[in-house]
Amino acid sequence: MTGGPAKAYESVAMRPLEPFLIPEKPRGGEADPSTCRSCRPSEFTIWQDEHWRIDGGWETGGLPFIGAIQPREHWLLEDAPVDVLAGLGPLMQRISEAVKTIPSVARCHFSRWNDGAAHLHLWAFARPEGMMQGRGAVLSYWDGMLTEMPEQMMHEHIEIVAEALAAGGGQAFPNR
Ligand SMILES: [Zn+2]
Which of the four pLDDT bands, split at 50, 70 and 90, describes residue 6? Predict the structure, then answer.
């Protein structure tokens, strides 16, 4: 981590490895999908279409944009229908292009972690142009380290992404 291409870490201190927990604690919405928070309509939904929605703007951070991408219905990666999954590839392309329309954003990175909510979700992160220390997975950690954007700027960036997406179909801010 200290020697990777991003050169973002001076040093890293891992905690000692704890005993494994088996069976694991259920993820959000896993034991009872009726309690799944990702299934509920949200004021933070910035765009949606028939199958997918994108949320953002929960709090200001240091990165120009972070979005959560998830199917509108309660699907896991393991059981999502092919017609839902088939829309994800083209949508990722559209999100990447939309995020890069934010001024001074060079790239859009995606991650898919699988431990918080059971409901299938991915993350999109905007990397500022020229930020060589933000290359790769370390970008997500920079969000809490960089100076926070002004709230108005965060909303401007969300508007840019939502409108760029809606220009290709779907609806910006469906819950406003
Ligand atoms: Zn759900």
Answer: confident
Vertex 91 angle, CA 113 and 81, to 5°: 70
Ligand 1 center to 40 CA (angstroms): 8
Residue of 53, 86, 60, 70 lying closest to 162 (CA atoms)? 53
Domain boundaries, the chain: 33-172
Separation of 118 CA from ligand 1 center, angstroms?
A: 7
Distance 41 CA to ligand 1 centre (A): 11
Ligand 1 geometric centre to CA of 36 (Å): 5
**Ligand 1 centroid distance, CA of 33 (Å):** 6
Q: 1 pLDDT band (50/70/90 cuts)? A: confident
Q: How far is ligand 1, taken at its centre, from the CA of residue 110, in Å?
A: 20
- Express each pLDDT in 61-94 by its tens digit: 999 999 999 999 999 999 999 999 999 999 999 9
- CATH class given for the domain over 33-172: alpha beta
